Amino acid sequence: xxxxxxxxxxxxxxxxxxxxxxxxxxxxxxxxxxxxxxxxxxxxxxxxxxxxxxxxxxxxxxxxxxxxxxxxxxxxxxxxxxxxxxxxxxxxxxxxxxxxxxxxxxxxx
Length: 109
Fold this sequence. Notes:
This protein is of the alpha+beta class. The protein has helices at about 20-30, 60-70, 85-90, and strands at about 5-15, 35-40, 50-55, 75-80, 95. The chain has one domain: Alpha-Beta Plaits (2-Layer Sandwich), CATH 3.30.70.1240. A five-stranded antiparallel β-sheet has the order 2-3-1-4-5, with helices on one face. The radius of gyration is 13 Å and the shape is globular.
């Protein structure tokens, strides 16, 4: 069994919810001391909406995801492990909170 060293937690948002997403991501960053990526106001990589990513070490995963589950507001959250196999991580090992969206996985083929 493969255990990832960390996970990506992607928050999806739009023009109306960008401030909310930034606030939630900054709170997670500060509360759990995890790295926060850029707040992308454009689609990046396989992601079908604007997004921000937090990198969560495996040992903090339970605490962070429990908090996200209760505090994500109306935002869609996409979570995946980082095992080194990007296609499987995004396609087969994903966790969704909120709306399940179609990712653009073509870059992984």
